[in-house]
Structures are given as structure tokens and as C-alpha cells.
Design goal:
By secondary structure, the chain is α+β, with helices and mostly antiparallel strands. It has seven domains: about 10-65, no CATH class; about 65-220, Alpha-Beta Plaits; about 220-265, Laminin (Ribbon); about 270-465, Jelly Rolls (Sandwich); about 515-685, Jelly Rolls (Sandwich); about 695-770, Ribbon (Laminin); about 865-935 and about 945-1045, no CATH class. The protein contains 14 helices and 56 strands. The strands form 15 sheets. Strands 15, 16, 17, 18, 19, 20, 21, 22, 25, 26, 27, 28 and 29 form a 13-stranded antiparallel beta sheet that branches. Helix 10 (about 865-875) crosses helix 12. Residues about 775-780, about 815-835, about 860-870, about 875-930, about 935-955 and about 1000-1015 have low confidence and may be disordered.
Amino acid sequence: YAPDPDDWDNKTYVFEGHMPSYFILNKRTGFLIIKENTPPGTYQFQVRVSDGAWPDAVSTVTVHVKELRDDAIYNSGSLRLADITAKEFLELRGKQRSRYELLVDFLSEMLSVPPDGVNIFSLMDVRERMLDVRFAVHGGPSFLQPEKMHGYLAAHKQKLQSFLQVSVFQVRVDECTSSECSSAGGCSSTLNVRDTPTVVDCGTMSLVSVTVESTAVCSCPGREQSHQSCTTYPRNPCFNGGICVDTQHGYRCQCPAQFEGPECQQNKHSFHGNGYAWFPPMTPCFDSHVSLEFITDVADGLLLYSGPLAQLQTWDHEDFIAMELIDGTPTLKINHGSGTLVLQLPGNINVADRRWHRLDVRSNSKEVRFTLDRCSGAPVKEMEGLGSWLTTEDHSTCEVTGVTSNTDRHLNTSQVLQLGGVNEDIPYIYPQLQHKHFTGCIRNLVVDSKLYDLGSPADSQSSSPGCLTTDSSCVNMGYPSCGHRGRCHGEWGSFSCQCVAGYTGHQCEEEAREFSFDGHSHAHYQLASPLPARRTWIQVLVRTRKHSSVIIHLVSREQTEYLRLEIFQGHLCIFYNLGDGNYNLTLPSYRLDNGEWHEVFFDRHDNELTLRLDGGGGQREVTGTWSRSREIIIDPTAVMLGNTFPSGINKSFQGCMRDARLNGRYMPLDSQPRDGVSQVSMQGLSAGCSSDSCKRNQCNPPFTCVDLWRVHECRCPPGHMIRVNGTRKFCVYTLCATRPCHRGTCVAQSPSKFTCHCPEGYRGRHCETALAVYREDVGLSFSSLFAICICFMALLALLLGIFLYTRWRSYKGLKEGVYHVSAHHDGWEDIRENVLNYDEEGGGEEDQNAYDMAELQKSLQPSPAQSVQYCRSRALHHPPPSHHHHLLHQATAATPSAQSLDPLSRTSSSTTLPPSAASTSSTTTTSLRRDVPPTRPPAQGQARPPQLARRSLSFSSQDLARYLCEIIRDADQHPDSGPFDSLQVFSTEGGGSPAGSLSSFSSAGLDVGSSGDGAGEAVREETLGEWGPRFEKLRALYERAEASDL
């Protein structure tokens, strides 16, 4: 961008300095083109602009490249601003910041996220001076859900308008407010994303992004939801870690055990009395049906609220819906935009009884019905077989109806749905509500057959997924009470189990067996007890290729009333007569005759009938209430499976069945009575559900036979596609044979073209790029947490025990005294060059830190003998007190004490002798016994034997010598001292040591008995000979030394 007054000149644009590798510059127009797969980041470079006449200008360009992931787009929030364009929103206003930057700061402050976590990625001019702004906010491990952003923006709408100085027309762009869909079943707003880039350029700043548009679809979103293949969805359609599985008619979800919805929804949520949970807005059909179940023991509370979050302006919609408990009585408040209708059940009803209750709200245009527990307890009287005009019923205690005021006919709510309470931290005071919180659990929130996922609210407080009150009954010693294949229906202190389709057994651990019906078959049953007249439900797994056949047939005793569940022209259908005529209800969108296993479910409450296929939801579910009669008394002896009653041939079932249940009772296919159901007769049934189509049909090469269950198909080998030339088919090699899609599925469009369908977590043309997919933790059960805590505590106890044991061993070693070494390894302790760090009895040896250990380990002088000499000289001038005496032994060969004296005898260097003792004959020696307490000599003034002469060596540390001498003197003079410690000098040899080195036999210390008569040598040899085989080497050294002297 280089502003120029004469902009008509021809300019030239070139890079200045560093050439950016990811950008291309158009030299004539100055347009920058970014290359594909440019890494995210900030790039800065300079561009020189010249027109050939005036001085060149150099512009600095900063490009911020941000990755726009699919989850950012589908978790994006939106605003519709009035009287502004995209260019005006982006440009700087003089010295003021742009509205783009102001909105980033506002979202950052309101949602408590850093500014770089806010990404405004789309600015679209939709109408004349109307602007749609789309943004994503990354908060923590994932993007914030749009309901949270929309809720807080709606609550602070006035503040946002003042901050941006612009009018906010809509929070959450909803095209249905301006669309005409009255002739359809409803309206929903969908988001369309195109790769075509949208450029907003205001000179100094430009925004380039994908094109995102919101459009209105005139349909009922809940009932008309279709199921496509897994790869057609931008993200996994299965919630809570469910696995998406493709079938011939759309996807199915394989769910973890704790999630019961058809798309693995968490169907329960707990509230603790002062909280709330936010979920996506309700988009009910024009003929709407909203239902939920709850359990509580508190008489007052707010179950549900969907409506305004801020003070309304004159042009704002005031639509809202609220369900409250007032003194234990359910109350509905609903406003279609022109006045509030309040429907309250009779005051004698109290639902705060610790039982599950169900509330239904049905609205057909202006008429609204509010029903408790489906009126299952209301009295109904019918004269069987005489027509509906003799039917009487009383719903006054369970249902209330009303009509909304004025002309508005439908509920239009675009704001967040609040369950279990409302957020009171926002400025709005909710004048419509009497109570603002709820204590208890809510489950199975369904809006027009769409089951809400209650596991991951956009915002919540004092609430949690699941139901803490009842789920505790579903866990026994850390194991699910109903097993991993069972669904536990918890009550307040009790529970019941229901196995998922295809499983049976006490813990739902057994897989139900398959049985084949040959087309001329039936299974006739008799029930031990009658079925309820107002409730019937059937569940069975079927597999067939027959277009029309009967699954189960139930009749009354007169056979005028009946329920017949069958496959009619490939579709699931129920034909029935409850006493007032023949009716039928068909599920038209999906077929059952495709050879796949299908879960069929039929449910009747009074005159309301529901069909579900493969879990239901959307187009897989249909509900009808054509009949006015509500009861049918079924003959317990006339229950027919796989045929009509009485049995015929035309509509006999052909295919396979398993796990057939009637009102929860298993209908055995193996002739074994079970759950009060026994077989009367059986024909044409066989165990198993095999197929041998490829055995009976062969394919010509290179085609291969594929068994599609009782139908075969000849297909090309992998990597090839079929081509048709007239009546001839042949296989053509395609690039899919090279497996170009690394982790995805290759779909050949032609021999040279293919597309890759990437699984979740991968993208790219060949599915080569792995994404960091965040999956929210579904959480651990109470039993798992308890087991983890027990293991952790056991580990702590084990570590504590090991620590205490090691400390006790250390203390015991200190208390018992010296460090013992076995006799076999005592030579290991004779280390001459080091001072060993071990604790031994005596004073001062534990103080190994307060003194310089380096001087003890390796002296700076040849020998520390000067210390000994210094102590000896001080002892001559300061003799010890008279009560300290030393024991003297005569060194003779006849006494044991004399035998212990040899050139290696360890004598104390702390002994002090008078000078006259040094000249005494060498036949007597003095040994200080440091291993026994001192004893008094016979006489006080007895002369002391002479000591061995020691060679005095120089030593520089006088302080050390003085300190050691004082320590030795204090220990020797103690009156109650035990055996003395002895200072053993191992680091010197020669005249300064009483024990000479083994490597030098000519030192002075070896001349123990040298008197010229050979007595010393005789004593030495005799002593070494008596010491045993361990000293043979030492004795050999002596003999070798004597031989060398000769």
C-alpha cells in the first residue's frame, strides 16, 4: 500500500531485500499471492514502489497466516451489525483503533482468553449496509462452543454496542427471522462454507479468508434429519467417542456402554441447587413436541428456560419457554411473542417424591398441551368392540391445555437453552421466573425426536454429567450392575437392567442366537400373564430381503382389535385397530429389505404410536396418534412371530431374527420357555443365519464374487473400476491400486482421477496431514476412581513401610556399634590410601563434615607421624594422672600374649614412655591393649618397658597434631571409659611405624627381635606357622626375604 495523489501513473512493485519464499508479487498491480500450504506464522518483508518520476517508496508488509480448522468454523460465533460495511469495520478511524481490533479486545476480556486466542475470520456484506462477522475463540484445549459466546454477547449487547459504536442487529445470525416457511414443517439456519476466498481491502489492512454464508432451510430440523455416510460430515456425527460406521442407508454409531442415545448422547445431567447448564438453542418445528424427565425431592425449582438474556428493546422478540416446579406442581410458561401463557397442573400433585417423572409440551400453532407422565394414571373406560364413542377418559389430573394470545403462532427462540437453572452472573434478572435453580437430575431431553447430548454443556456451574443420585445404584463393587452390555435404569435406591439389542443374560454377557425363517414358517407363543391394555412395546433384530412380510402379530380375543408389525413394500409399518377402526403408521425414509441387520422398535402409549429404526432420531423415527381409542386387551394365547394369526403363507417372514422381546419379555426361538413365554408351535425355523451365494454362483475372471448375504455381486479386484461397453462389462486399472490415500479411502472417479475420503483427525489431498484432534474426557466412574484411590493409598503405605524399615535398620546399626566384616573379607578393609566413611564407636569419628577430610585422606607430608611424636613429647612434659595405669606383658614365646606380638602388631601411638625405656633389651616389648578397659599396675612407680623406636618424620600441621593429642588425652583420662580407641597408622612405612610394610622387610619395624642370636627369627617363623593356611603367602615372603639376605 503506497498512497499516491496521481494514482493514474504506472507503478512497478518489486521485493526489497529478502525475497519471501511463500509469496508472489504482481509487479504491475502490487497484488500479493500466497502459495498453497504456507505454514502458519507472521511474515514481514518490504516492497519497493516506483513510478519512474518521483522518488521510490518502500512499504513494509506484515502478513499474519492463521490456520483455520474445521472445528473452528463449526464452533464459531456470529454477529450481524447494522449500518456498516466490511471495509469500514476493518479500516483505521484516524487515530482510533479499528472495530476489528476493538472486537478482539472485547471478546478477550469478556471470555477471559488471551487476544491471540480470538480469530475473526469472516466479514461478509450480506445486504445493504449489513455486515455478518464470524469469529472463533480458542480457550484451553479446544474452541469455545458458540452457545457460550452467544449467551454472553447477548447479555452484554448494550455494552458491546457502546464499545464498537455500532448497532448490533443480531447475536447469532438467524436467517429464519426473515424467511417465509409457514407452509413447511419448520425452519432452521445452516452454515455453508466455500473455499472461494473473500477479500476485504481497506488500504492499510486486508483480510482474506474462506467464504462463510448462513442460509435458511424450510424444514423441521429434528424430524427431517437424514443420515448420510460418515465421510460426508465435517466432523464425527457420533458424540462422546462413538465410532461412526457406514451402512447402505447412512451411518450408525457404536457407542460406549454408558451412553444410550442413537448418536452416543449422554442423556442425564445432575444439578446441585445453585447452578445451571447451557446447551444449543431449541429450534422446534411448527408442530412441536418437547419432553424431558426429572427426579427430585425439592418442591421448588427451574427445569428449563429458553428466552431473553438481556433487557428487551422495542424491536426484540420476547419469545420464551420455561418449566418450573412451584410447591411440587409442574408449571409451564410460554410466550410466542405476544403474551405469556401459564399452564399449571392441579395443586394436589407433588412430583418431589424421589421418582422419575416425565413432562410433555405439545404445540400445534397456538394450542399448547402440558402433560405429566403421559397420563398413564388417568382413568379410561372403553366398551370393547363397540366403537370410540363409548370411550370415556379423565385427564384433569395430568394434563392442562391453553391457547396463546394475539396472532403469533410459533415459538421463535434463538438464544441458549438453560437447564436446571439460569446464570445469575449476567445483568439480566429474569422477571418471567419465580425460581432460578433446581436440585435433582434431568434426563432424556427430546425436541421433535432429537435427543440432546447433556454431557458437554457450553457453560455450567454446580452441575455435572450423569445422575449422581441414581447412578450409584448402577455400580456394584466397581463393576456395572448390568454389565457392559446392559443399560441400567437407576431409581432412588434401586435399579433395573435392560440389555442392549442383541444381548441377553443376567449381566447381558450372552450374545443372542440367530435363527433363520424359511418363508413358510411361524412361531406361536403363549404368555403366562396378560399384557397391559394401555402400553405395548416390541423390540427385535431382523435381516431380510423380502419386500413384504409379518414380523409379529397380536390380536384380541375377538380378533377384531389387533397390532401387526410388518415390512410393507420394504418399509417398516404398523397396522392396528384399537377398537375404532383400522389405521397404519409407516416409516417411509428407510428400507429394511437390504439384507442388513436392523433394530426394529415399536412403542405404544394409549393411542400414541412410535416406530424407530436403528435407534431412531430424525427420519428413522415417526410418531402418530390417529386413533381415539386407548386400550387393547391382547389374547395371551395368540402371539404369533413371523406370520399372521392364524398362520398363513402369503405374509410369512423370510430371513433371520434374533433377540425378540415383547414388553421386555424374551420370546425364545429355541423352544425353551423363558420369562413366562412358552412356545405353542414352531415351523420352518433353524439355528444360524448363513449365506452361500458365492458357492452357488461363480464370476468370470477377473471379477471376484462378493457375498452380500443371500445375494452375490461380481466386482472388480481392489484398485480397479468397472466399465460398461454395450452389454459387456470389464475392469479398468485405476490409480487407487497404488493406495494413494495414506489413511483414508480411495474412491475412483475415472482411471486417472480419484478422491480420498479422510477419517477424523486427518486431512489433505491424500489424507497425509494428521490433526491434533481433541476429545473431551468422558470421565471416570465412581468405582474406577475408588479403585484408583485404593491402589494409590496402598502404594503410599508400601513406600512408607520401606522407608521406616530402612530407617530402623540404620538406627539399629548405629545402636549396635561397630561395623563388622567377616573374617574372610577382613583384608578388604586394609585400604591404605583412603579414610573409610563409616560410624564406629568412640569420640569424634562421626564428625566427618566439620573437618577438612582431604588432609586425612591424603596428607600434604609423607606421614602424620609428627602428630604422634608431638603427642609423645607433650606426654613427657605432662604425664597422665596417677590413677591411669597400663598393663605390661613380658614378650616370651611361652605365653599367649607373647605370641600375639610380631612385626605386624598394632601398638598405640598415644602411649608415652620415659626416655630410659627406649634402651631396654628388645626381648621385652610393651603393648597397650585397646580392646579391654585399663587396669592398675601392681606398683605406682614401676618402671615402664621400652617402646619401639620410631623414626620421626616431618609434618607441617601443628594445629592438627595439637587437636588430635588433646582429643586422645581427654579420652584416655576419662574415669569411666570403655576400651580405648587406637589410632592405626597405615599410610607410612619405615622407622616411624611399629608395623612395617609388607613390601619392605628391611625396615626398622621388622627387626623385632634382632639381638644377634636368631631368637627373633625363630619367634617369627613359629608364630607365622601357627597362624594357619591363610598366612602361607606371608610366611613365604619371610622365607624369601631371609634367602635374599643370605
